[in-house]
Amino acid sequence: MTATRPEGLLACIEDDLTKVEERLVAETRSDIGEVRAISGHTLLSGGKRLRPAIALLAARCVGRSFDTHRAYAAAAAVELIHMATLMHDDVVDEAPERRGRPTANAVYGNSITILTGDFLLAKSIWLLSRDEENLNLVRLFADVTIAMAEGEVLQAAVARNWNLNLTTYEQVIERKTARFLAGCTEAGAYLGGGTEAETAAMRAFGHHLGIAFQIADDLLDFLGDPKQTGKPLGTDLKDGRVTLPLIHTLAHCDPATRAELLTTLERGQALTDSEIAALTAVIARLGGFEVARQEAEQRMERALAELNRFPESAYRDALIRLAGYVVARDR
Amino acid sequence: MTATRPEGLLACIEDDLTKVEERLVAETRSDIGEVRAISGHTLLSGGKRLRPAIALLAARCVGRSFDTHRAYAAAAAVELIHMATLMHDDVVDEAPERRGRPTANAVYGNSITILTGDFLLAKSIWLLSRDEENLNLVRLFADVTIAMAEGEVLQAAVARNWNLNLTTYEQVIERKTARFLAGCTEAGAYLGGGTEAETAAMRAFGHHLGIAFQIADDLLDFLGDPKQTGKPLGTDLKDGRVTLPLIHTLAHCDPATRAELLTTLERGQALTDSEIAALTAVIARLGGFEVARQEAEQRMERALAELNRFPESAYRDALIRLAGYVVARDR
Predict the structure, then answer these.
(1) What are the phi and psi torsion angles at B97 (to 5°)?
(2) pLDDT of B88 higher than 80
(3) How far is it, in rounded angstroms, from Cα B262 to Cα A64?
(4) Is the Cβ pair B149, A35 closer than 8 Å?
(5) Which residue ranges in chain A fall short of pLDDT 70?
(6) In sequence order, what are the beta bridge partners of B315?
(7) pLDDT category of residue B284 using cuts at 50, 70 and 90
(8) What integer pLDDT is reported at residue B2 of this predicted model?
(9) pLDDT at A32
(10) What SUPFAM superfamilies does the entry give (chains A, B) (predicted)?
């Protein structure tokens, strides 16, 4: 298995993605065997290549220009940043598996996984910096990386805060997820020769899509099929990560239910499957999932509205269908 | 305590360093309280600001130009990279203290220390990328960061390899230490308006100084005063890190001594202070420290020779004295 792409949706950029894949293999080379091994492990562990695909589709959708060399380098760079942050996140979360396969930290240990994450992050900057025109892309993805680190730290800092409000939840998901997708679509628009207004619209598309993406991801922790997602249900609950369905439920239940829920939630890593199922049932009953689904759908509509300014094309269609896939996906 | 600078040596750039310090405080701001706290902890924990000082002295020594805004930004960026790599290294080494003070990981835990390291690394790139002329500096420090990660991984991979040869040892210290100092002096020369030959000479100065610096650092692990260095003797031995004095000793002792040394070395973390003292005595007797000292001094001479092409100045004097300090330092 190499990359698992959302089937069918990306046919119009299949050739582009093949070139990006070649670039990724080339850019993760190192004369240090262990760096090569860990990079290769992460590269070949079934990523969907969603971010490169979104950047390339955004560029093709704008369609005023397309320098293949620059576009493929930028698309590879965003996947390298994604790989680096996944590696660091998996160390932080002590995750044994991702997408049903052992994580780099599980196979190679935390130390060299942290360092190879740094290697990949620096490689992405190096790759972007080779083109004289790319200084603004360097700045954009430095900003994205800053925001992602801040979002992850904020998420860790507010873990087990059962009174988390919507504003802070949105701040977390905006930084840890939406900022990156907005960066991919903004970079794509820039590489596609977009005007200022087109670039802003593409950025807004990525931003709203990113919020919808993370809400959908948070829903999968309660409602996903572990065989599909590759991770057990209730991981967020065990880690004390408070997401939209739970925020809604805790804000709208009677005091007795709230007290009961908090007692269960406090069990953290000790939560059993049946306790997680019971929590899920209460959230379902009180409409927490429905609220989250509606929010994700509204965000997706706001995202799609931004695409109206672009001419009809196979690329725009693919972005629309990809947005639908992101919100309805089961893994 | 803020920065502890090698006293007296840096008087000629005292004002520059004050500006860089202000810049560092400004650039480590974040609206996420925990990011600010950890960055602040590392910023105020007694770093010598050696790398910014070397970059600034190199620029002033070349002396054809000096744009304060760009120079201070670049000097702050190299310290941010240094801070980020120290934080990740301390997590990797599970270090409880650095310079006699608790590390960020000891106070705040591994997870948010890793993430704040990423934040600082990205901040350094962001800071460099704000100036239109700086793309080559971005590329240079991306390359430095790649090399440092590779060097650290290689070091971890060859730990407890008692047959380590000089070539691999040099590869480790070139990447983990010398490449960064060479980057600082090259960046300095570039910011000072250096010609190609001047920039190459400054880079070579930094490279040789970096090798000497690391050999001196490796000697401190055997011969330093823990009260001065802030870390216990024999940390490298416990971690299985094979450095020049040990390589020389193992290559030049009789088979019986070698067998005895290896038995002791295999004890790793279990090594007692008296075993470390006994190992140190054998290395001293077989000239391991003398060989390392000579190598460091030769490297320093090669470094200083590169400075001959620059006109006499307070800045060149400071670089020469700083090189002496680096090799003779006791902490």
Answers:
(1) -140, 155
(2) yes
(3) 66
(4) yes
(5) 1-7, 330-331
(6) none
(7) very high
(8) 38
(9) 95
(10) Terpenoid synthases (SSF48576)
Residue A115 at interface with chain B, using a CB cutoff of 8 Å:
yes
Interface test with A, best of B116, B129, B130 (most A CBs within 10 A): B129
Residue B295 has pLDDT above 50, yes or no: yes
Residue B312, φ and ψ in degrees, nearest 5: -60, 135
Instruction: Please give the span between the terminal C-alpha atoms of chain A, in angstroms, as a whole number.
Output: 16
In whole numbers, what is the pLDDT of chain B averaged over residues?
A: 94
Q: Hey, are the CB atoms on B88 and A114 less than 8 Å from each other?
A: yes
> What is the DSSP secondary structure assignment for residue B12, as one 8-state letter?
G
Complete DSSP assignment for A146-161: HHHHHHHHHHHHTTT-
pLDDT of A47 reads 83
Is the Cβ of B29 closer than 8 Å to some Cβ of chain A? Answer: no
Phi-psi region of B69 (alpha: psi -120 to 50; beta: other; left: phi over 0): alpha
Distance CA A299, CA A174 (A): 12
State how far the Cα of B56 lies from the Cα of B13, in Å rounded to an integer: 8
Cα(B265)–Cα(B287) distance, rounded to whole angstroms?
Answer: 18
Tell me whether B118 touches chain A (CB under 8 Å): yes
Q: How far is CA A148 from the centre of its chain?
A: 10
Report yes or no: A161 at the B interface, CB cutoff 8 Å.
no
Q: Does A138 touch chain B (CB under 8 A)?
A: yes
Token pair 């807004």: residue: A204
pLDDT confidence of residue B269: 95
Only one residue has tokens 């939630």, namely: A265
Class of A11-328 in CATH: mainly alpha
B68 CA to chain A: closest CA distance, Å? 21
In the structure, what pLDDT confidence band is assigned to residue B95 with cuts at 50, 70 and 90? confident
Judge: A153–B91 Cβ closer than 8 Å, yes or no: no
What's the Cα-to-Cα distance from B301 to each of B50, B115, B192, B295, B322, rounded to whole Å?
Answer: 19, 40, 23, 10, 13
Cα angle A11, A17, A20; round to 5: 175
Chain B, nearest residue to A129 by Cα: B139
Counting residues of chain B whose pLDDT is more than 90, the rounded percentage is 88
pLDDT in tens, B24-61: 999 999 999 999 999 999 998 878 899 999 999 999 99
Q: Which of A93, A61, A74 is nearest to A144 (CA)?
A: A74
Are the beta carbons of A153 and B125 separated by less than 8 Å? no
